[in-house]
Amino acid sequence: MEEEKIYSVTEPVGSEQDAPVSNMEMLSDVFFKEEARRLKEAFCFERDADDFDYLNHQLQSVKNLLVGLKLPWIQIAPILYRCMAVYLQRPDQHVSNMKVRYLSTQLMDGVLLLSQNGRLINDLLMFFDRQIKEIQCLRNERGEEIDNVSILGTE
Predict the structure, then answer these.
(1) pTM of the predicted model, to two decimals?
(2) Beta carbons of 131 and 69 less than 8 angstroms apart
(3) Total domain count for the chain?
(4) Which residues constitute the domain of residue 53?
(5) Measured between alpha carbons, how far is 38 from 132 in angstroms, rounded to an integer?
(6) Quick one: pLDDT at residue 12?
(7) Sign of the CA dihedral 142, 145, 147, 150?
(8) Residue 51 and residue 36 in contact, taking contact as beta carbons nearer than 8 Å
(9) Could you report how far apart the first and last alpha carbons of the chain are, in Å?
(10) 1 located within any domain
(11) Which residues in the chain land under pLDDT 50?
(12) CB atoms within 10 A of CB 137
């Protein structure tokens, strides 16, 4: 019976030749392609665009949304409250007072939540920024590989 070798968590398995850097790049490439496929499926995107371009666009859109959420909400809350008070002085006959109170309460709850989660928004911004940079690197490497193949093919 073969004896199974158990490695500790900190002990490196194999040598550096067993796991070359290109293997990590390949895994990264596979991860981003799968992520792009899932996003295309979720948003019913049917055009045959480059996976990296599509994923880059989606990540950039989410990053822009997060930048908008990063406002100093706690400083904006009094302004929103005053605007709501002015609105309540001139009630709209088509909207019930109960609905206005409910919506204003929801707005203030949202402002409070966003003001308390500034660190989470910053962390998400950094995460999306890193992913965008990784995609740019993969796109550049793939562009260099295509250029090298075309140069070798013409010789």
Answers:
(1) 0.58
(2) no
(3) 1
(4) 21-154
(5) 17
(6) 46
(7) negative
(8) yes
(9) 55
(10) no
(11) 1, 6-18
(12) 12
